[in-house]
Write the structure tokens for this entry.
Amino acid sequence: MDQSIQSCIDHIAKDMRRREDRGQVAAYIPELARVDPNQFAISVTTAHGDCFDAGDVHTGFSAQSITKVFTLAIALGRSGDQLWHRVGKEPSGNAFNSIVQLEKENGRPRNPFVNAGAIVTTDEVLAGRAPKQALAEIVGFVRAAAEDSDIHINENVAQSELAHGDRNFALAHFLAAHDNLRNAPEMTLGTYFHQCAIELTTRQLALAGRFLMNAKTGSKLVSPSRVRRMNALMLTCGHYDGSGDFAYRVGLPAKSGVGGGILAIVPGIASIAVWSPGLDRNGNSKLGTEALERLAHEMEWSVF
Ligand code: DON
């Protein structure tokens, strides 16, 4: 299997380099709008402990919404099922930053991966502590999961999003109006923007994703049942309004971010990270999705 993984991702990286139609980089966070769209990287780590990389694997990228997976694990670890009083578990059928659905549903976000749900999840992790402490816990979790202490927050990206975060401020204030925010909107959002600005390489992300790989044993960080449940949420909600299409094409639980990264899990077999900054209309990496579709097909990896 190992040789075929390496030759498969080598081919994919080579093909992706040549592609002209690469999607659009996220424009609403100026620091992300500056990223060169002609980049592509993919890393695979297996349950046996092997790692395979291809493409621009030494360049760090902004994890953005992929970090929602880590804060969800922390929030569930802290509050257990209490979190579900504040956030739902259903696909949204709306954009990741939709405001209209939150109003219709009385301030209870559909799931922990749309922005409103992730803001509530970060609010739960914050729990009255100083943002610095909560961020240390979040970054600490990612570092522990990846066993790599180099993973860090890109302050420029955090400030860039903060300066252009009107939509997320609207969501946070709306949550507060419905009594679904425990900390001041500025505090929760300051923490959320910094969490989203965690920067890592595909190798580091693939390694960090290993804690979701084994639903039989769980991991040092989460229990077996939580691994199963988090994978279920990633499959149904991890790509927002494109989750059905992603499940159809790739067939793996995964979480995307507007930095162009995707973390995908092959239960019991592998953790995969892919990155290409251009996005499709749902805000998910265009070439990243295509690469995963090809890899899953060629390796016959699917949860179905
Ligand atoms: O809150 C935001 O809009 C960004 N920090 C994260 C959104 C995101 O990554 C959506 N994913 N595809």
Observations:
- The longest helix spans residues 2-18.
